[in-house]
Amino acid sequence: xxxxxxxxxxxxxxxxxxxxxxxxxxxxxxxxxxxxxxxxxxxxxxxxxxxxxxxxxxxxxxxxxxxxxxxxxxxxxxxxxxxxxxxxxxxxxxxxxxxxxxxxxxxxxxxxxxxxxxxxxxxxxxxxxxxxxxxxxxxxxxxxxxxxxxxxxxxxxxxxxxxxxxxxxxxxxxxxxxxxxxxxxxxxxxxxxxxxxxxxxxxxxxxxxxxxxxxxxxxxxxxxxxxxxxxxxxxxxxxxxxxxxxxxxxxxxxxxxxxxxxxxxxxxxxxxxxxxxxxxxxxxxxxxxxxxxxxxxxxxxxxxxxxxxxxxxxxxxxxxxxxxxxxxxxxxxxxxxxxxxxxxxxxxxxxxxxxxxxxxxxxxxxxxxxxxxxxxxxxxxxxxxxxxxxxxxxxxxxx
Length: 399
Description:
Radius of gyration: 23 Å
Distance between the termini: 45 Å
Largest sheet: 9 strands, mixed
Structural class: alpha/beta
Strand order of the largest sheet: 11-10-9-8-14-6-15-18-17
Order of helices and strands: HEEHEHEHEHHEEHEHEEHEEEHEHEEEE
């Protein structure tokens, strides 16, 4: 009889944790630089409190769920998709609220890799006599925060490269015309990527050629707009600098054109200066600067040179290509801009991919291949777990 009871308890834990996962998804895309977290309080086999983290600075999921449960939390079980924090950020430690509420047992989905947490929350609860079970529905919980895990572990945003191509791999005609390579449905889908991202990045050449807005335009919240411009050649009157919040940011070389910098600042543009070598900005330094700015999810829309630099340095995580049934040929501009290898052995290796039809176009979703050695990828972060993946339909922990 004991194994049967244990199995029933395990099934119940999974069921309640998956309910917390559903809650956590309600915060996806709005919590950066924090993770998305959901929590439920269960007493006597019944959910008596629910909560999810809505945005950075707001109460954490566990605190919201405990407040909803009220006195019923005493002696109950708390399910949290991520290890409760044990440090003071913008809000007090969740462990303090859990202990004050009299919770008897805590069930955790994902462990928190943030050095400020990383087992400390679980250790504090256990020292206080609270039972803790880890790893329940871990794959589903890990999949909630694939991008945030990259942000915490590597100190850079999760980088998604997006491009619209003809069938022969061109992003514009020889004259620079690129409107429109893909159809209306593909363009609408592309705008949902901007709603997913904390920031969208383009090079100065794209600003000059296309004068883009880089907003979500009704698909959701608009991201921070970032222009990579080492020489500060961008026109302050460009549309990317005049749109609605959250505003625009230019990453440039240290000491570049002080008068141009002053004009952009008068326009309300934020500038970040980083070292440059031979006129080129280090992509690693660019990503580190954006991470310090709180950017967890970065959408890179172009141009071909920026995409080429990120591919060449391996500083990318996912590629979304919208491929149109057109052929340009001739002197049309190819994607990406790379020096090219002399042999197939020098080709950049990609990971597994998926293909979907979007209107008259095709969507190709490609992940960076898993490393052959070193730390394993987070469960649920690969191409087989795409419920929350950008392109598909479907700070620190924690500030």
